[in-house]
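Researcher: Quick one. two chains, 343 residues in total.
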Amino acid sequence: MHELSIAMSLLDVAAEELERQGGGRVVAIYMKLGPLSGVVKQALCSAYELAREGSGMDDAELVVEEVPIVAMCGPCGGSRSIASVMELVCPDCGTPTPDVIHGRELELVGLEIAES
Amino acid sequence: MNETPRLVQVRQRILKQNDLVAHALRERFQRRGIFVVSLVSSPGSGKTAFLESMLASLRRRYRVAALVGDLATDNDAQRLARSGAPARQIITGTVCHLEAPMVEAAFEEWREEPLDFLFIENVGNLVCPATFDLGEALRLVLFSVTEGEDKPLKYPTIFNTADVAIITKLDLAAAVEFDAVAAHRNIQAVRPGMEIFEVSTKTGEGMETWFSFVTARRDRTPGFLTV
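Model:
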């Protein structure tokens, strides 16, 4: 269970960003999560419920966008969405695709801030 | 007063604190010519035996040291120290994986130590260590023939974030009817192009091939001197 420490890091990064934005009350935290990040959405959301208590962002809702794996396919000459983390192959031509462009995301992408 | 909240777009890695430390460590290791290899696996797959064998063999030509992470006890560090190489335990308490600041703190004692190789044995766990960069140059994922050929499919992320796969306990392969072809196929499915080594620390099978690979990787690193 590393999701709790990740939820706490998320709140730290969000607090830092809030300060940069001049403060306020965070209503929602938006993040992107890739299948290759090693983090499970449900576990992260449960951990977040615990972590936000007393963090100063107690009301902030966590909105997780799960993004697909996208990899470069040499023969097709472009990027392709990969259907399964268990098989990194191009869905069009079947070539193995080690060159992953997206799918490792564990990123804060937005904050919804109210004045107070 | 009922103002609509404003939406601010940002882009920040959630683990940026860990990543900053890992990045600084990697630069520091590179500058000092220390090739850092980390090991991840499930508990009981033979990480410590593999590491013992590596320390004993490599220390004839290289200056080697090991950091080993566990939730409790320093049994593994004691075991590794018997090889004659410096070994330090990182006791993580309740944390199920190593993080870059733990490596940084544990390495502090060796800050002046001339080293060629540093091995970092992660906590036995195929899930959590995947997420944390430790500043290593090479990450190994180990799994033993007794664990089943489908291990890579069950834990694709850890295999995907590793650079090399080591299949251990080869001496037991026949007894458990290990299907090497299926194991290789499954590794390639989750991490196309991954290098795979099959070893037995008990019989020594495959170890020389692995040693040649890892020493060549170190010696070929730009800026590192050949020993």
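Chain A touches chain B through 38 residues (CB under 8 Å).
Researcher: Thanks, that's what I needed.
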